[in-house]
Amino acid sequence: MINVLVLAVGLGLPLAPAVPAPAALAPAARAAADPAAPAGVLRPGDRGPAVKQMQRRLRAGGYFWGQADGVFDESTRAAVWGFQKSQGMRPRNVADAKVLRALERPRRMRPLVPGGPRDRVEVDLRRQLLAVYRDRRPVLISHMSSGAGVQFCEGGRCRIARTPEGDFRVTKRAPGWTTGPLGSMYNSLYFVGGVAMHGSTKVPLRPASHGCVRVPMDTADKLYRLVDVGEPVYVRRGGR
Known about the structure:
Oligomer: single chain
Strand order of the largest sheet: 3-2-1-11-6
Order of helices and strands: HHHHHEEEEEEEEEEHE
């Protein structure tokens, strides 16, 4: 039986205030969210054919699993973050000309584990990026948030919120929402003790969990369909 305290480490409540989702921001508020963004780029809250085209290209690359509806919502923003990280760019709340050009001919992402199994999951703690490989090619690439690296206490014991590094396998799947002492998790894929990859409504641009690997909700649905018990999971702090 898994110790309750070990399970608690995997549950993913934020350890710091979450950044508000910008999906419904008005134009003035959107500009304030990223004042360095020049006119003509795509921003959270934007709508139209240009956003839909970007969403379709993100989906084709394995970054976006929401609806390609032409609305730059929170799910689209997370996909843009994931793409920017995979291309060596600093993640930002906008898709500028550089991002849109890169989407036309994206650079292939370097694997964390060259020569690893044909089918596997890689978790890059440095870039905060998760990738699912099929036949040695990434088919899902996602922005993520891992252990915050700060102390927390639960049940009279204190520990550091850290995502363990190493070579693991998925040991258990838990569909839908599950709730424990530290919060709720969606479509959980456990890979060491009570630590899991799971969906969350809060996946900020910083490590923020108690140890789990959080991914956006739409991505969690696809991840859960792709990954089964026994799948290798490699957790590394990748190089630059």
